[in-house]
Each structure stands twice: as C-alpha cells, then as structure tokens.
Design goal:
Helices cover 44% and strands 17% of the residues. The chain is α/β, with parallel strands linked by helices. It has a 7-stranded mixed beta sheet with strand order 4-10-9-8-7-5-6, sandwiched between helices. Helix 12 packs across helix 13. The longest helix has 19 residues. The structure holds pyridoxal-5'-phosphate. The site of pyridoxal-5'-phosphate (PLP) has 13 residues, from helix 4.
C-alpha cells in the first residue's frame, strides 16, 4: 500500500544520495552567512576576515555616497518596484541608468534587467532559434550556456580564446550565427581577443556578443561587440544586468525578452546605487588604478605575469587541495574562497583571488607571502 508520505521519502532519498555523491568528490557546497563591511572586511560567525574573494573591485558597494543614494531612493519611492517594468515598475532611475550605460559603451541604447544572469538567458533566445548556430568560448559563463540552450540553436564550443578554432566552428552553415565570449574571464582574469573576434564575425557573418561582467570599470578599452552585456553587481557594487546595443535590438528585447517581461523591475534603491556608482566610477579613475596596483603588487610577489584585470587564479588542481589552501589562508585571517567544478573545469580547482580599491598594501603583501608558502608546500 502506498503511504501518503512515500513520495516525500523518495524525494529526500534522492536529494541525500545526490549530496553524498558530491561530498565524496569534495564538491559539496554550503552557505556561510557573511556580513560584508567596509575595507573588504567580512564577519563570519566569530571570525573577522579580510576578503580577497569579492567582485566589488572598486569598493563601491561600501561607498557612503552609494549607500546614501540607495537609502534616499528607498525613502522616496519605496522598497520594491511594485510590478514588472512594462506595467508600473519602470522607475525613472532605469532610464537614467540606461542613458549612462549606452553613452559609456558607445551604443545607441541600453536595457536594464533584474540581473546579469537574467540579461543573458533572456537575450540569447530572442536572437537565436533552431537552425541557427551559437559559437562560444568554452569558458563562457554558465548563464551564456543556459541562454544558448534555451534558444534551441546548435551550440559549438571553441577552445578558450582560440580565434582559429572559433573560425572553424563558425564555418558550418546556419541561418543566423552568434559568437559569445566574455571580455574579462571571470575565473582566470584574462581578456578575450575581441578585435580579432570582431573581424572574424564580420567575415563569417556572425553577430558578436560579449559578457563584460568583470570588465565594467576595470577594462575600459573600446568594445567592438554588437551586443554588450554586463552587470552592476560587480565593480559597480550594486545589482542589475544590462544589454547595450542598437536601438532596434533594445526595442525587440523590450517586446520579446522573457526575463524582462515576466519579472518585477529592480527595487529603486538598487537602481539608485548603480547610478551613483557609475557616476563615481567615471569621476574617480584612481579607484581603478588602485585596484589594478594591488593586483600587480600581488602578481609581482608571486612571480606571475602582469595582470590584465583584478582577478588572479592560483590553480591547485584537486578540489580538496584548493579547499585545504582556502582553510590555511582563513587561519591567517584571509577569506579566499576555493572555486571548484562545475564553476571551473575538472582538475583546475583554484583559489580565485580578487583585488579591490580599499585593500591595504600591507595586507596584499601578507596574502602574497601566505600564498607563496602554500605553493611551496604543494610543489
Ligand atoms: C556574475 C556574472 C554574471 C551574472 O551577473 P549577475 O548580475 O550577478 O547575475 C554573468 N556573467 C559573468 C561572466 C559573471 O561573472
């Protein structure tokens, strides 16, 4: 006889067996309540740690002017947007942000989405359908992969930053073609050869779309991509995704982008924080040079090449080795999260170390010495 709880028991058994498998591979993850404070300080339980794991590269999430702008918008307009943007949720701060972003990126128009993830999974399926071809860098972010899958188009991956391989993948016939890459790769910190990819796309009849999540505010060279996606959740210290491109594309996304139409607009406080952060980013280039100087200081101490962004991977290979390294750094007062598959490819588990404006040179030096010690031990 079927008891009333047998399917609930089966659900629990399913979840537990999946979790046990992850545990056995050192791939089980868990949440750690983390109170982020000024100067890259994070309080976790009874520990105070200096974080080198944030994407808040310009330390703008903690800037008093950004916090003030968020508070003021909440007090003026309320805590939430109240509806989707196409109903009543299109707070005027959206248009102000879009204008700023379009001008910054040299594009006709921009469109704010709830997050970068939503921007990618909403935009790619508007452009591509079965019979079309998406060619993407193998290291492109999960939300580009998911957007590509949702579109139903044929997907071909090319070797990381390998333009010749991208060319061979683009050569197959298709109704429409789209090439996807990141401007700054999120887990490696290296840059895509965007100019070469743009030439290739022109020659092979493909649109070029770049994900600038880790480039905004950090790598400010002109971007030739036809579709420029990004987020306000990294160097802008706030939240919200965007697409910049031609006006007609933006109008089409307003009409067809599922993750714009069927979701609520961003809270006014979030929009105001993003806008203030972009203004500060433009007015204070020193913030960027400080973050880059900290990255360069670390790379020099470790004997690594000059960094291209604020992200430095230190690869350990095995997931457990990366976890052990993170634990050792925690014992020295640093928060550097181990990044494991599936976020990075198999056997490339790493410490992904990121540098911010408000880090202190002495702390960067101490971290470098601690990482050197770990590397010597692992060798
Ligand atoms: C973080 C990230 C996203 C998602 O942005 P959110 O606004 O945090 O959803 C997309 N692409 C890349 C490369 C990212 O690193």
């Amino acid at each position: 006889m079927v008891t009333q709880n047998s399917m609930k028991d089966s659900l629990i058994a399913f979840a537990q067996s999946r979790l046990e498998r992850l545990e056995a591979q050192s791939l089980r993850r868990s949440l750690h309540p983390s109170a982020r404070l000024e100067n890259s300080m994070v309080v976790r339980g009874d520990k105070r740690l200096i974080s080198f794991s944030d994407n808040d590269y310009l330390s703008l999430s903690q800037d008093p002017r950004v916090k003030e702008a968020a508070a003021h918008a909440a007090l003026t307009y309320g805590a939430g947007a109240g509806a989707s943007r196409l109903i009543t949720g299109d707070n005027p701060l959206n248009a102000a942000l879009e204008e700023h972003l379009a001008a910054k990126k040299g594009c006709e128009a921009a469109l704010i989405f709830g997050s970068g993830y939503l921007a990618n999974i909403s935009t790619i399926p508007v452009l591509m359908r079965p019979g079309d071809l998406i060619v993407m860098d193998e290291l492109a972010h999960n939300c580009m992969h998911m957007g590509a899958r949702l579109s139903g188009a044929e997907i071909a991956l090319f070797r990381h930053n390998d333009v010749a391989d991208a060319a061979s993948k683009l050569a197959q016939p298709a109704t429409r073609k789209l090439l996807l890459t990141e401007t700054v790769f999120s887990m490696d910190g290296d840059l895509a050869p965007l100019q070469d990819l743009a030439v290739l796309c022109e020659a092979q009849g493909a649109w070029l779309m770049s994900d600038d999540a880790h480039g905004l505010g950090i790598v400010e060279t002109p971007n030739p991509a036809h579709i420029q996606m990004g987020t306000l959740s990294k160097a802008a210290g706030a939240y919200g995704g965007y697409i910049c491109g031609p006006r007609a594309l933006i109008d089409l996304l307003i009409n067809r982008g599922r993750g714009l139409i069927f979701t609520t607009g961003l809270p006014p406080a979030t929009l105001a924080a993003g806008l203030k952060a972009l203004e500060i980013m433009a007015a204070e280039p020193k913030r960027r040079s400080r973050a880059m100087a900290h990255t360069a200081q670390f790379c020099k101490a470790l004997g690594l090449p000059q960094p291209q962004s604020t992200i430095v991977p230190v690869i350990f290979g095995a997931a457990q080795a990366a976890l052990d390294a993170a634990k050792a750094l925690e014992d020295e007062g640093f928060l550097v999260t181990a990044i494991r598959p599936p976020t990075v490819p198999k056997d490339t588990a790493r410490l992904r170390i990121s540098f911010c404006t408000d880090h202190d040179e002495a702390d960067v030096e101490r971290l470098a010495q601690a990482v050197l010690k770990l590397r010597r031990r692992a060798a």
